[in-house]
Amino acid sequence: MTEIKQNNSEKNGSFEIYSDGEKAGEMTYTWAGDDKFIIDHTEVNEAFSGKGLAKQLVYAGAEYARKNGKKVIPLCSYAKSVFDKNEDIRDVLS
Fold first, then answer.
1. How many CB atoms lie within 10 A of CB 90?
2. Where do the N-acetyltransferase domain residues begin and end (predicted)?
3. What's the number of domains the chain is made of?
4. Which residue stretches of the chain have pLDDT < 50?
5. What pLDDT, in 10s, does the model give residues 56-71?
């Protein structure tokens, strides 16, 4: 079972993913004004690689942006590749 938790402050934040209660990875972002955030890093611990967890983090960020009227700038190369490959989340791109 996986769970995603969001941490958010005025300047930055993160989405952390847990697998069976253990932190498996995170995606960090920095706010660019009030209506956009920059995804700057996505990482999953090696023990959890290959399970699609990093993609779940990017989707969680896209869903958060959609629900809150925000836009996303994916500077992280992994996040950018997920946006490039998945048309269903491109509506939140800045």
1. 11
2. 7-94
3. 1
4. none
5. 999 999 999 999 999 9
